[in-house]
Task: structure prediction
Amino acid sequence: MLRTIYIMWLRELKKFLRSRSRIVGALGQPILFLLALGYGLGNVSQGAGKGSYLQFLVPGVICMAIIFTSIFNGMQIIWDSQFGFLKETLVAPVSRVAIMLGRTFGGASVATAQGCIVFALTLLFGFEPHSWALVIPAVLVMFLAASMFSALGITVASFVTDMQGFQLVMNFLVMPMFFLSGALYPLTNIPPLLRALASIDPLSYGVDGVRTLLIHTSYFGIATDVTVLSAIAITFLGVGSYRFARLEF
Amino acid sequence: MTNIIEVKDLKKTFGRLEAVKGISLSVEQGTTFGFLGPNGAGKSTTIKMLTTLLRPTSGRILIDGNDPITHPDAVRRSFGIVFQDPSLDDDLAAWENMELHGALYGVTRKTRLARIDELLKFVDLDDRRRSYVREFSGGMKRRLEIARGLLHHPKIIFLDEPTLGLDPQTRNHMWEYLGRLNESDGITVFFTTHYMDEADRNADTIAIIDHGCIVASGTGEELKRHTGKESLEDASLELTGRDIRQESASGLEHLRRMRRARGG
Result:
């Protein structure tokens, strides 16, 4: 079981390290957000007398890179098991759950690596973490969020089978989760409806966790963040494995 | 004379659609078995049930003496498969695809390396072992998939339309490999195809399936004699009729089209 998980995990990392174009391609969007919002909106928030907006925005942009990469990775797993390489693993004498877990954690590691690259990039934009020692726990929270969204991607993709469904997920799940999460604005002093939505959005806890560790500003508190993220990750991994193990082709 | 594949009253229904309606067939060890029929007749559904990908609604299957439902892993170890859609990892080199397969099947490292060498030579891909699969042509991919499917010394190899989209040269080449393998290792070959001449030339026994039922089985000669036709193509048309079959545009078909559009 562990051997299979390891084999599948290693394969994802190998593929990632080889595909420079994919690494660079995934950085376009975060850079755009940093430039347009970090510098553009930065003026507005400085005018309003709050600290640097760029500092505030960086954890949100890191989480953006993570949620997009992980959800697509999760959905890719289902795709891959119908037509791609994963189909060959489904007839191998190994546990399907191990296949799915290895692939999920591999994808989550890749998403975390993307998040780290974005982090390194933000340093060039002038970002300063509150404490360098807390960067490592921040990376762990990133990995936790990445595992959760990969598992969510699998679960969702096991229900949708075509392009329309894919667009639907994008517009009604990924985008709202991102914009309502507090990645772009603080959750304090927002209308109660928005706050309620943010509190049921799993990404909010990822953003808050990373933000707490990187710039020492917290909304839910790190203990709540990690607990909620872990609970949702375990739930989705459970549902995802259940669905995946019963996939029929 | 033992039957390595034994199927009895096998049924599969999807909702109200009866895809396979209680078929029985047996394949003798070491023979080549051709499974023919029009689109949507139930060929792929049957292969999927034989290879543990799909649970039968009812009926019984024995693959090398094991039931795919109760002993899936024993069944999985006994066969290799080449799917209708390519299932290689395009971002890995040819030998890495083999290596991964060997590791998943628990083949020890030493045996694995020797076997990879041997099989890549066998399908004439030895000089391309370090190339990424995405640089391969359709025929090369198919050959690599055959080599990969054989890595763990299976007793049966399933091929779902293995020559679809290949030029006649590559097709002949592929059958030459399979024939050699069948002779030297006594491996049982179970394949589906649309090309009747291919089945006639290569299969020891043939079964024709239509609308989920087996309408005829026997050797190519027997089928021709039975229908009084010159070629297997005519015999098959005689048995299954001339209507063009409608395959519903299912979710699966959508995905397949998407994949093609992406150049997969």
